């Protein structure tokens, strides 16, 4: 009796899990393994079938200047967007956590960019950045400043995209800080005021350390986003000029669907998977720390 | 929520109010600008004349140049089908993880969580190959399939099910409920806030998703709004700004209106989903 009940428990558990398991294996686990295998094979063609080349694709990747370029771009993109987004998110959360006039309007204004698709955001900002007729150049013109091809100049294209991404993401991160702030006991602020602490001192020594778990959570998500979000490149720059705004995932897309070299795309994907795995481990330890704070 | 006892208009509060409003106006101005451009004739795109006549021509023009209503229908079908599938698949799996200590459940759960990090958009190359073998390229089912099992949904629902008191389950069992009866009558109703939160996050995510739908679709009959908009506004097609703005607003309108109407639920859902 107990044996069969025990067995039924295992059977029921697995039966319930089966639909999810099939889908996850087919579209997450299998493709991860297949990516790794494909990265060891050469690009096949009608005359020359794909064959095992060992680390050949990795050798060509190491020698590929575009690969290094997109990796460095990804790093600058992350460094440019994340600290500013987080600083803005904290400021926004602290502002709307008080009883300021029009608080619900303020919260809506900060949060709205979050629910727009990146492709629509890019459409709107494309016009801001377009040379001479664009909004930014028009406004610059009122002050007698010359026009500039923001997205066509390798020096300004990445900063331009960074500014747009900050606009899109800061409000999203604000939500998590707002949730965290609402759990901070009000007595702390009272105590600090009685002790005569300045607001800046209170923020630096009390609030910011208490928000640390949220910051770590947001940080991991922001880094992930900086690798996953490339939609805007399709509208704004196509990775140009001369790959100055190209990012790793966009380069994977180009390799697979523009140059039809799926094996090289697989090799690049392995690098992306490795980067994400490192972050998964980081998150594991971060979440561990998070529990200690509680 | 607030920790200020009495409202006093001190200098810092005044400065903060000004800063908050300045930032807010800066933050919505790109969107307001898109509205301006969409409702005015092309020549007013950069001339802010308050007396400029309003017009719907840009919307009419956008609709005549590309089948946005069809795209909208595709997105609606995609998002509805996907959410339904995610809820069914996720509920069953979450129930297994929350209430059955079956053989290999810990390893299986770890394998599910892999998808939190490695989302389907990263595996576009291999997943395209898989869908080609299944003959599902350029179908709406094909856009949705890789997302139907959602690690995020399974995780959220498992948390919700775990916090359901065991006594309720025992009571239901005494009443003669079977496995599915307990799930449907006890666990699912009590997890309603989690379903709402997950539903809103899933809808906004898939309404806005672009890269995978772009890869897997190539016809008007399957393209969702984001891909349709991307194709429409590609720089080489050389359409004018007012029409692009109108098309952009058409694409975001349903979600934007829903957000403005149910702001509180949206914000709370994103909070709820992020904290768990």
Structure commentary:
The complex is a heterodimer of chains A (294) and B (276). Chain A has 294 residues and is mainly alpha-helical. Chain A contains 13 helices and no strands. Chain A has helices at residues 2-38, 56-62, 65-96, 103-111, 118-129, 135-142, 157-181, 187-194, 199-210, 212-228, 231-236, 248-257, 262-293. In chain A, helix 3 runs parallel beside helix 7 (157-181), helix 10 runs antiparallel to helix 13 (262-293) and helix 12 (248-257) packs antiparallel against helix 13 (262-293). The longest helix of chain A is centred in the first third of the chain and has 37 residues, at 2-38. Chain A is flat. By secondary structure, chain B is an all-alpha fold. Chain B has a single domain, classed as Orthogonal Bundle (MetI-like fold), CATH 1.10.3720.10. In chain B, helix 10 packs across helix 14. The relative contact order of chain B is 0.14. Chains A and B meet through helix 1, helix 3, helix 4, helix 5 and helix 7 of A and helix 1, helix 3, helix 4, helix 5 and helix 10 of B.
Summarize the amount of helix of chain A as a percent range.
Answer: over 70%
The largest interface is:
A-B, 95 and 96 residues
In the CATH scheme, the class of chain B would be Mainly Alpha
- Any low-confidence stretches of chain B, pLDDT <50, length ≥5? 1-7
**CATH homologous superfamily classification of chain B:** MetI-like
Note the main sheet of chain B: none
- Total domain modules of chain B: 1
The termini of chain B sit apart by 20 Å
The global form of chain A is flat
CATH topology of chain A: MetI-like fold
Range of helix content of chain B? over 70%
Q: Could you state the order of secondary-structure elements of chain A as H and E?
A: HHHHHHHHHHHHH
Unreliable spans of chain A: none
């Amino acid at each position: 009796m107990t044996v069969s009940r025990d067995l039924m428990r295992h059977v029921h558990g697995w039966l319930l899990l089966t639909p999810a398991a099939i889908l996850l294996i087919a579209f997450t686990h299998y493709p991860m393994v297949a990516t790794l295998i494909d990265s060891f094979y050469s690009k096949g063609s009608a005359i020359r079938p794909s064959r095992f080349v060992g680390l050949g694709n990795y050798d060509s990747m190491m020698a590929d200047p575009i690969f290094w370029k997109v990796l460095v771009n990804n790093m600058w993109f992350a460094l440019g967007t994340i600290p500013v987004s987080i600083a803005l998110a904290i400021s926004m959360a602290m502002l709307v956590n008080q009883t300021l006039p029009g608080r619900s309007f303020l919260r809506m204004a900060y949060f709205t960019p979050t629910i727009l698709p990146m492709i629509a955001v890019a459409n709107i900002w494309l016009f801001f950045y377009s040379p001479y007729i664009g909004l930014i150049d028009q406004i610059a013109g009122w002050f007698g400043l010359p026009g500039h091809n923001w997205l066509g100049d390798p020096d300004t294209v990445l900063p331009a995209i960074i500014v747009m991404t900050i606009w899109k993401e800061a409000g999203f991160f604000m939500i998590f800080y707002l949730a965290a702030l609402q759990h901070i006991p009000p007595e702390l602020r009272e105590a600090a005021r009685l002790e005569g602490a300045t607001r800046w001192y209170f923020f630096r020594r009390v609030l910011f350390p208490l928000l640390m778990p949220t910051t770590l959570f947001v940080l991991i998500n922001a880094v992930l986003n900086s690798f996953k979000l490339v939609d805007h490149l399709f509208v704004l720059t196509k990775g140009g000029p001369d790959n100055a705004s190209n990012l790793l995932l966009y380069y994977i897309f180009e390799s697979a669907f523009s140059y039809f070299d799926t094996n090289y795309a697989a090799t690049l994907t392995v690098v992306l998977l490795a980067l994400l795995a490192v972050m998964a481990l980081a998150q594991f330890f971060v979440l561990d720390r998070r529990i200690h704070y509680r | 929520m607030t920790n200020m006892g009495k409202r006093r208009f001190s200098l810092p509060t005044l400065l903060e109010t000004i800063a908050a409003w300045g930032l807010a106006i800066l933050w919505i101005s790109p969107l307001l600008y898109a509205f301006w451009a969409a409702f005015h004739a092309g020549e007013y795109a950069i001339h802010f004349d308050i007396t400029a006549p309003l017009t719907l021509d840009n919307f009419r023009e956008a609709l005549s140049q590309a089948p946005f209503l069809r795209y909208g229908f595709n997105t609606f079908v995609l998002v509805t089908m996907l959410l339904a599938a995610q809820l069914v698949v996720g509920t069953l799996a979450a129930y297994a993880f929350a209430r059955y200590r079956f053989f290999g459940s810990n390893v299986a759960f770890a394998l599910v969580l892999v998808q939190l990090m490695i989302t389907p958009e990263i595996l576009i190359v291999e997943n395209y190959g898989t869908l080609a073998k299944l003959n599902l390229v350029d179908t709406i089912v094909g856009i949705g399939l890789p997302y139907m099992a959602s690690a995020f949904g399974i995780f959220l629902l498992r948390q919700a099910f775990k916090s359901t008191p065991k006594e309720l389950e025992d009571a239901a069992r005494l009443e003669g409920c079977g496995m599915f009866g307990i799930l449907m009558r006890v666990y699912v109703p009590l997890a309603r806030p989690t379903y709402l939160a997950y539903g809103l996050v899933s809808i906004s995510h898939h309404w806005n998703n672009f890269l995978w739908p772009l890869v897997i679709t190539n016809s008007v009959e399957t393209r969702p709004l984001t891909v349709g908009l991307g194709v429409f506004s590609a720089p080489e097609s050389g359409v004018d700004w007012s029409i692009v703005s109108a098309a952009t607003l058409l694409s975001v309108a349903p979600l934007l209106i829903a957000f403005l109407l149910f702001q509180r639920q949206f914000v709370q859902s994103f909070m709820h989903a992020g904290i768990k």
